[in-house]
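Project outcomes to date are best conveyed with an example. Our students and postdoctoral researchers have been running inverse folding experiments weekly, and each run begins with a structure described purely in tokens. The record below, which covers 294 residues, was selected by the lab manager from last quarter's runs and is presented without edits.
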């Protein structure tokens, strides 16, 4: 890692996303370097001038929070902030934040035991969705369509977590969506691209094979993203929106504080890395003749 880096890109490994980001930062004249796990001790030890900013791109949620907290205590600004990452990495905390700030969101309740899962599903009615509070790529998200599904979920979970150490989970209203959801990438406060993720599965993650189509950023999308940023603070987000087929209402499903963009950018053509690098320059108070981001 370069000792005179202005910007660090903290990562578990350098995926295509982080490589694009480093290229975009360097193209704008910034001294940018990756920050891998083995580099962190040297940065937090001090002895050298800290970088102006660190972009947190660690795959592990716990690593992302840990790295950002340590860098913040070292005096390094992080994008996103540790408190924001913590909220975004917990679907239960997000639901509480959305409710407090009046952000449209599927009705969501916490459950802290197997009995509470059964009681909450019965209260909410079927179909409903049970989710781990932390997780990516649709892992562990289960749609309950009948009592047998609930029994199977409880039985399977108890066989690996009899003590219930993996609680809480969230029980969430099932939204009948029209075969797709929306992922909106927000840089700072600005939505830079919106994509439809189309899949016959009720989980429309690109990691699970959903097709990606660019779509218009409407006023409604702008309003919802502004509400999210007002609640979480300026940052770099993947805001997932879902349309209720019955009512036509657009809801905020969840917010990702470490959105992947390399694969989708290759399809929709928007230079997300370029937009983010330009925003980093603004945060650092730097100006230059910048390449134009699409």
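After processing, the design step wrote out the following sequence:
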């Amino acid at each position: 890692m370069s000792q005179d880096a202005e910007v660090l890109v903290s990562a578990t490994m350098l995926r295509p996303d982080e490589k694009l980001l480093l290229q975009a930062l360097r193209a704008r004249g910034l001294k940018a370097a990756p920050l891998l796990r083995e580099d962190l001790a040297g940065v937090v030890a001090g002895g050298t001038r800290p970088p102006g900013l660190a972009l947190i791109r660690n795959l592990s949620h716990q690593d992302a929070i840990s790295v950002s907290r340590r860098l913040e205590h070292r005096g390094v600004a992080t994008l996103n902030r540790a408190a924001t990452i913590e909220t975004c990495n917990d679907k239960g905390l997000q639901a509480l934040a959305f409710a407090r700030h009046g952000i449209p969101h599927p009705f969501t309740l916490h459950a802290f035991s197997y009995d509470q899962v059964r009681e909450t599903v019965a209260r909410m009615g079927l179909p409903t969705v049970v989710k781990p509070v932390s997780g990516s790529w649709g892992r562990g998200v289960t749609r309950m369509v009948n009592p047998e599904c609930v029994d199977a979920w409880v039985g399977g979970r108890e066989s690996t977590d009899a003590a219930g150490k993996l609680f809480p989970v969230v029980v969430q209203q099932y939204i009948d969506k029209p075969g797709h959801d929306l992922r909106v990438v927000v840089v700072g406060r600005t939505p830079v691209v919106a994509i439809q993720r189309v899949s016959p599965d009720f989980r429309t993650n690109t990691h699970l094979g959903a097709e990606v189509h660019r779509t218009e950023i409407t006023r409604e999308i702008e309003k919802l993203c502004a509400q999210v940023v007002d609640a979480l603070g300026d940052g770099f987000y993947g805001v997932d929106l879902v349309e209720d087929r019955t009512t036509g209402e657009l809801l905020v499903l969840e917010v990702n504080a470490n959105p992947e963009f390399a694969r989708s950018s290759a399809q929709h053509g928007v230079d997300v890395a370029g937009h983010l690098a330009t925003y980093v320059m603004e945060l650092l108070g730097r100006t230059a003749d910048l390449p134009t981001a699409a």
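Confidence is low (pLDDT under 50) at residues 289-294. The two ends are 30 Å apart (CA to CA). The training component of this project remains on track.
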